Automatic annotation (TrEMBL):
Protein name (Swiss-Prot/TrEMBL): Adenylate/guanylate cyclase domain-containing protein
Membrane topology: Multi-pass membrane protein
Cell location: Cell membrane
Family the entry assigns: Belongs to the adenylyl cyclase class-3 family.
Source lineage: Bacteria, Bacillati, Actinomycetota, Actinomycetes, Mycobacteriales
Domain HAMP intervals: 254-306
Superkingdom of source: Bacteria
Key words, A-Z: Cell membrane, Membrane, Transmembrane, Transmembrane helix
Chain ranges passing through the membrane: 29-50, 70-92, 113-138, 150-172, 193-221, 227-251
PROSITE patterns per the UniProt record, alphabetical: GUANYLATE_CYCLASE_2, HAMP
Coarse class of the protein's main subcellular location: membrane
Guanylate cyclase domain boundaries: 338-462
InterPro entries assigned: A/G_cyclase, Adenylyl/Guanylyl_Cyclase_3/4, HAMP_dom, Nucleotide_cyclase
Pfam families per the UniProt record, alphabetical: Guanylate_cyc (PF00211), HAMP (PF00672)
Amino acid sequence: MSGRRGDYGSLLLGGRFESRRRRRIRTTILLAVGSYGANLVALGLALLLVTVGIPEPSIFEPSLRTVNEVLLPTALGVGFVMGHVRGVYVVWSRLRWVTRSELPPTEAEARRTLSLPGWLTFMQLSIWLLGAALFGILYGAHELRLVPKIVGVITLSGFVVCGVVFQLAELSMRPITAIVLRSYVPPKRQHGLLVRSVGSWLLGSGLPLIGMILIMVFAVTIGDVTIVQLAVSVLVLSAMSVATGLTLTLLNLSRITGPLRSVIDGMREVEQGRFDAEVSVYDPSTLGALQAGFNAMAAGLRERELVRDLYNRQVGEQVARATIESRPELGGVERTVAVVFIDLVGSTTLAATRRASEVVTILNRFCGVVVEEVNQRGGLVNKFEGDAVLAIFGAPTELPDPAGAALEAARVMTARVAVEVEEIRAGCGVSFGVVVAGYVGAADRFEYTVIGDPVNEAARLSSAAKEDPTVPWVSQTVVDAASPAEAQHWHRGPVRVLRGRVARTQIYLARS
């Protein structure tokens, strides 16, 4: 299932059918670019805070020229290059298993892969804290009052970077995480919604608020801060709070809405009858459990639909629907129905002169014609009895003209069998009357059927019709019960005492 947002919540992440090699390359690039961009933006915010947001004590003293123009750029350049080279190397190495083969990762590989966002975050935090200590020493060596300012701003920026990098890493890792979660279940679902939301608020808004508090402390302790400088500082930190808070909120929202949206899209497909819907499970948290739960539900629905389809084929759609809508019980009720019985002529000879597979093919073609014509007129193919077929019109679903429907089906199917299944001939008999329709068998195994004299009469008529299998033989009762439009297609035929019966039966034959 792939929509306009892709299988993983964003088109930037590719699709589920993308090769493993491309997933590894794409994920590494996204992690590198995302981490580099977050650090670059955070560095700009840190410089803005140091120079404008908290102007005093100033870093532009003449004694700090060497630090500002030489040591600071050198340290930043080395830190950026080494940090990102190290990060890309570790990511590429830990994802080596992705392209090694199509096999799932080992447990150790799965754990290392799922821990990549945490590892990248820890590495970023270490670099920023190291930078805070280093620049605190460099600036503090010339102006001790700069230490709280430098250390505080760099630490604040570092924590914000960590929040952004962690969320970007989890987003970028979705295609790889999906592979891991196919075969590996984390010991516990971590990073729940509450932890994510509180963490995003703390890093995006809580830390800038702490920064404002520190500015107030500096203003009180230093004493020579003007109202304008204080206002500028508060405005800069407020703008930073808005920007970082919005960024982290949107990232956190994407991490939540992505899995939820995939499940909603999957549910929409299921509602439309596409039970093969499946979502990619790419979230190691409780949202991933929701995605996996949907897939399990969809699999259950597919299995149930398969069972229903097989049941429909086994007993007929009408019986299946009646069984589902009401609890079936042993026993039956009287119903007035039309019964069609069609039996092959010379089936023993057919089986003796042709291969078994060929006989099955012929029987399937024969049954296909019968089923199509019966279903088209609202009837029920109740039984396949070797080389014979029993069909009912009027049970379990009532029909306005069951006799007419049965007669029309008999006429058309006889004509079609003669043309489309020319290897065989079949005698077709139709009767009409009251039967008992219901479930017969034992409490743990029963079937829907009809019992009564019309069934026996239809069977005897089909046997008699083998004398001339080009036309159906039907009883007068069914012609009398049919609508005039259908009755006109039949004419009076011979009068016979059917095998096993005492009274004579007036037979009608279809007009040529």
